[in-house]
Amino acid sequence: MIDLCTLGTGGTIPMPDRALSSLYVRVKGRSLLIDCGEGTQVGVQRLGWGMQCIDGILLTHFHADHCSGLPGMLLALTKAQRQETLHIYGPAGLTRVVEGLRVIAPQLSFPVALHELEGGEAFECIGLQVTAFPLQHGMPCLGYRLHLPHPAAFEPEKARALGIPVQHWKTLQKGTPVTLEGVTYLPEQVLGAPRRGLTVLYATDTRPVEAIPEHGFRCDMMFLEGMYGPEEKLPLAIKNHHMLFREAAALARDADAARLVLTHYSTSIEEPEEFLPLAQAIFPDTACAQDGMTWTLHYDRD
Amino acid sequence: MIDLCTLGTGGTIPMPDRALSSLYVRVKGRSLLIDCGEGTQVGVQRLGWGMQCIDGILLTHFHADHCSGLPGMLLALTKAQRQETLHIYGPAGLTRVVEGLRVIAPQLSFPVALHELEGGEAFECIGLQVTAFPLQHGMPCLGYRLHLPHPAAFEPEKARALGIPVQHWKTLQKGTPVTLEGVTYLPEQVLGAPRRGLTVLYATDTRPVEAIPEHGFRCDMMFLEGMYGPEEKLPLAIKNHHMLFREAAALARDADAARLVLTHYSTSIEEPEEFLPLAQAIFPDTACAQDGMTWTLHYDRD
Predict the structure, then answer these.
(1) Which of A88, A199, A259, B300 is within CB 3.0–4.6 Å of A219 for a Cys-Cys bond?
(2) Is residue A243 within 8 Å of A279, Cβ to Cβ?
(3) Considering CB atoms only, which of B12, B63, B101 is closest to A100?
(4) Which of A62, A76, A97 sits opposite B13 (nearest CB)?
(5) CA of A62 to nearest chain B CA: how many angstroms apart?
(6) B41/A39 Cβ within 8 A
(7) pLDDT digits (tens, 9 = 90+) for A133-164
(8) What percent of chain A has pLDDT over 90?
(9) Which residues of chain B have pLDDT under 50?
(10) CATH homologous superfamily for the domain A2-152+193-297
(11) Is B263 helix (H, G, I), strand (E, B) or coil?
């Protein structure tokens, strides 16, 4: 199960009812943020899913609207007396940017581990298998694929048939072989068929790139930018390295995604729903995110 | 006339309905901010008095809650295509802090002039005579006195009696002497008695210091911190270099101020009005600021 919340859905400049874009992701009580613009810590408070449990911050890039909330967040975590290491991921320049911003947050109650990525790396965060991949935004910018594996089910009848005592079942269930009286039992002998996990793709601040449908292939949820709606904004989208609603929808269609959520709206978009039909004409399962909107993704019932 | 708005009234950590403390000050269509924490630019938008007209930002000190909104504000001004120089004032370390924060706001549409102050300096900003003075916060921290002079009234009957032609009245009215046929007329010959201007004092993040009632002597409005309410918080106030409501009230009383407004509340204060009687017992004309509250100060009608 993955819980998701678009804490903010604005691009460039925050608005009174639209904070800068940030996604809160929760798995089994631990959380990560994708981006941390101004207003993120208030969004976290308002959501009420916890601040102390945030173990990772994945930054897409270093435009201020995506990381200006970082020093405030670090101080809020210090105020909450966090002790555990906080992991911050981001593209080339991460160290310089975090050091710059920490001029106003020099003393923290916890260690910060910085992970500078090129795109292509895979790592683990809050139990999610994260893959970073490069986007096209006129500066280093990353998209993130989050994958939650679904372990195969333990089948007691198989274990019983093999004569494995009950006290060894948990070990096998967790994927570790067990040797009893010279015989080694492998987990796959007592587990069912592999099960589909859950996959979320997040990519904002980019022109359409092949890597998005590739990494988002058959994902359960795709978060893409809805920077501009109407067709006449295309030259601006190209100039500013952004996308139209319909371009995002085409990527979700190409990925065969289960559903698409648009976020990161230009301040020129007053009511995102106005342009939603432009996306739905290409990919029907498209929705427009609003600040504080939440989703829960469940494993298939198989 | 001076217009004032407490954009945010929170200390340390922003809350959903309490942004970090920032004061918006407007005089004749130009504005300055005192402090610029996270959320300030949204407060400016919500207020609707203008962002482009902000010519100066006066920082009290460099705890993140007072300056974390700066990079976002610089970008918002750039987005609005500001051309004029923005003046930023603050205590020792200003250059280092602004350079650090500008790691995410490197390219601006306007020049930034940095003014590093020790306390004791007087300068002009948006027509206000500003005096900076040191506070006691365990790090360099400044209070600000803002004074709007009230020019003496021009008295036409005096000018007429001296036989000064009407076309020279404006020059004298503006304070410049006029020489006609070898005779020099001084402004004071045609002006009325000096008039009382308007004075606002702003001091947060400090233990009580003598400089506050000195600089705020008979001021029209005093903004002081209401960090802690109840008496049992005194040891914490001393440790964290802050004040109780009653300590702020005593400073306003000592200054013989016209009125006191409390702001910059600890997150431990849910409802500031609960502790207001503690201040009013010492200084009756005390009010608790809320986010977005506005005041207009008028010259005496004399």
Answers:
(1) A199
(2) no
(3) B101
(4) A76
(5) 6
(6) no
(7) 999 999 999 999 999 999 899 999 999 999 99
(8) 95
(9) none
(10) Ribonuclease Z/Hydroxyacylglutathione hydrolase-like (3.60.15.10)
(11) strand
A101/B100 Cβ within 8 A? yes
Interface of B with A (CB under 8 A): 12-16, 37-39, 41-42, 45-46, 62-65, 67-69, 71-72, 75-76, 79, 96-97, 99-105
- This model of the complex carries an ipTM of 0.87
Any idea which residue has 């005496």 for tokens?
B300
Would the CB atoms of A79 and B13 count as touching at under 8 Å?
yes
**Residue with tokens 């925050």, as numbered in its chain:** A14
**B14/A96 CB distance under 8 A:** no
Nearest to A68 among B45, B71, B97 (CB): B71
pLDDT of residue B86: 98
Residue A300: the pLDDT is: 87
* Domain extent listing, chain A: 2-152+193-297
pLDDT at B28: 96
Residue A280: count other Cβ atoms within 10 Å of its Cβ. Answer: 16
Report d(CA A226, CA A266) in Å as an integer: 8
CB B145 within 8 A of CB B201: yes
The chain-wide mean pLDDT, for chain A, equals 96
B114: closest CA of chain A, how far (Å):
17
Q: Check residue A302 and give its pLDDT.
A: 53
The catalytic site residues of B sit at 65
Contacts of A71 in chain B (CB under 8 A): 64, 68
| pTM across the whole model | 0.91
